[in-house]
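2024-03-11 09:14:02 INFO queue: dequeued item GTP cyclohydrolase I, len=232
2024-03-11 09:14:02 INFO validating residues
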Amino acid sequence: MSHSDDCTVISCRIRKRIETSGKRFFANDNISEFIQEGELDGLVDEVARKLRDVLVSLVIDVDKDHNTAQTAERVARMYVQEVFRGRYAPRPSLTEFPNAEALNELMIVGPITVRSACSHHLCPIMGRVWIGILPNSGSNLFGLSKYARIADWIMARPQIQEEAIVRLADTLSDAIAPDGIAVVMQADHFCMHWRGVKDDRTHMTNSVMRGAFLNDATLRREFLSLIRLESP
Ligand SMILES: Nc1nc2c(ncn2[C@@H]2O[C@H](COP(=O)(O)OP(=O)(O)OP(=O)(O)O)[C@@H](O)[C@H]2O)c(=O)[nH]1
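2024-03-11 09:14:37 INFO prediction written
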């Protein structure tokens, strides 16, 4: 059956709205604007029904195995309401404070603990993020907790690390309008630890430097010297 054949299910109705708008709905895209009131619960039920079929195809006795009987429902809730909620929930609201003192010094927030999942195997990515900001007099300033909330919203999607930090840098840049923004992420990828090559010492570290952090090597060095990255 093609995606468009059965629009009795909620995912199909949501997908149709997105397609009509011409927007993308990749694994790391937020689709909250296309989800109507009450539909998320229905989506959980739909995902649970399909996950139950997956367990049946894995030849697990979901009717008699007391430990697995509710697994499909648990995993569906986990995906939609927890680990991938950054796709389905709107952006957290940000309380903005004007930069009344015209602060223009380097500010660093981190390490922020982040949890994501790779889009290839849906295995966890567990890591830390540091955010550097060089505000200007027109920038908005946020309470510290909001950096963690935005990072969590961006990370709670299946994706690759390189794209995750670009998305985080874009979102923060749009909201803060600073002279420069830097994001560094260091993370463990469980698709490498738990399975596959089973190398549990390797981290992935990457960075995005924008504006003043890109153009001013002294500022970039100051930021990098103030964050504490781990060696493998
Ligand atoms: N660049 C990048 N690669 C990632 C990330 N997360 C996982 N990967 C890698 O993406 C690849 C997944 O694609 P394939 O090589 O087709 O998958 P596979 O055959 O199961 O690969 P193995 O893990 O080597 O068994 C693996 O090499 C993963 O280690 C990420 O955030 N960034």
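2024-03-11 09:14:37 INFO annotate: The longest strand covers residues 107-118.
2024-03-11 09:14:38 INFO item closed
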